[in-house]
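Structure ticket #2291
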Amino acid sequence: MRRNNDERAENEFDDNVVSIKRVTKVVKGGRNMRFTALVVVGDHNGRVGAGLGKAAEIPEAIRKGKEAAEKAMVTVALDENHSITHDIIGKHTGATILLKKAPEGTGIIAGGPARSVCELAGITNIRTKSLGSSNKQNVVLATIDALSQLKSPEEVAKLRGKSVEEVLA
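Resolution: structure written out below.
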């Protein structure tokens, strides 16, 4: 699938390969080797997604993972400190992750899989704690689940029928 230059500039995301695993399937003639790549993509401006690509060769698995991640993008509500708007817990199968709002200058305090998601989402100040499973794929998906649940103060105020000042007080 070829894209013209205008479309490429519009859909330009940075990507980070979180893990590459070699998967072996034993068949009658021997072993079939394949690769799975977990890829996180984001625009450093509040949009992030993760995808899994599977193929016989590593570059092809990464490309497929990148395409899958671009299809599964979520938008993240960020505050003026480039942190999340409120504390939240995300879950995916056995992995649970706690994301805590942090003041300016804190940086990204997170483990490997959660760190790559936060960096590509454009979050610069956050504290995280991975609870439960440490499986990279589940931690990445739990982090994205948590980020997708975030609401901005404006959204909460609208849902409650109040002003933003009343919600933040």
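Closing remark: The first helix runs from residue 5 to 10.
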